[in-house]
Specification:
The chain is mostly helical and about 70 residues long. It has helices spanning about 10-20, 25-35, 45-50, 70. It is elongated.
Length: about 70
């Protein structure tokens, strides 16, 4: 069983590094799948490339925003 590996383009890697703080890995994979229909890009592939680029996302859920007008 031979595996074929995806050759990442410079544009794809730049998109991952520029948008990884604002988008989820799932959203990045969905966007890249829309732009390149020749291969399927999974969430794991995006996550692996993000880690190779040394981009670390905070763990856990984002803190919920408190409605300031309700406190006043």
């Amino acid at each position: 069983m031979s595996k074929t590996y995806k050759k990442w383009t410079k544009e794809e890697l730049e998109f991952i590094s520029n948008n990884s703080q604002n988008m989820k890995d799932e959203e990045i994979a969905a966007y890249l799948n829309k732009t390149d229909s020749s291969r399927t890009i999974s969430v794991g592939m995006v996550r692996r490339q993000r880690r190779k680029l040394s981009i670390v996302k905070p763990r856990g859920r984002k803190p919920s925003k408190v409605n300031e007008s309700a406190e006043a």
